[in-house]
Amino acid sequence: KRISLTEAQKKELCEKKCNNSNLKGVNLAKEYGISEQSVSDILKRSEYWLGLDDAFTLIQAKHQRKPDNPELEEAMSIWVEQAIKNELTLTGHLLQAKAKEFANKFEITRFNASDGWLANFKKRNVIFSYRRRGEAGSVPLEDVLKFRLELQDVLRNYEPRDIFNCDETALFWRLEPSKTLAHGPVLGKKKSKDRVTVMITCNSI
Q1: Where in this chain does the record put each HTH CENPB-type domain (predicted)?
Q2: How big is the CA angle at 13 (ends 8 and 14), to the nearest 5 degrees?
């Protein structure tokens, strides 16, 4: 039977790995009763899990709606984990289509993979929309985890209004849309690279 860890347990697992870089995945898997692959998937998102507030995860867990079809939920969760592992691009429509496919296999009637189901599934499985940025870095995982905890210690000395984050982005102001209306397929053309670089900054409140 597949075991699903709570958000608090996933955060705890990441903290243990951070505090002991020699701790092996097989040991964590045995301790939490999950597979080594599940441990690996959790650690890949360690930055997210370590950033969760304990009080928030407790409140969220109490209000989280349980799935109406546990068998379908389990199958979807496993499929999503494998898709992410294989670096497939996931969309809401794809998740809904796959859910309908599983529903047919399990002979589940009165299931239409609605937008409401999709929203609740994403909440239960902590799935968000991200834009792929560049290539994967080569920084060791334990270094990232260690820095994350050190940063949290530093931030405790400041008020939320005094904590800022900034990043730069580019506005390609002469770039035309990638889609167009036509009677049939059209060839692409050279894209303009004229741009304005913007530095965006905001505090944490």
Answers
A1: 60-131
A2: 100
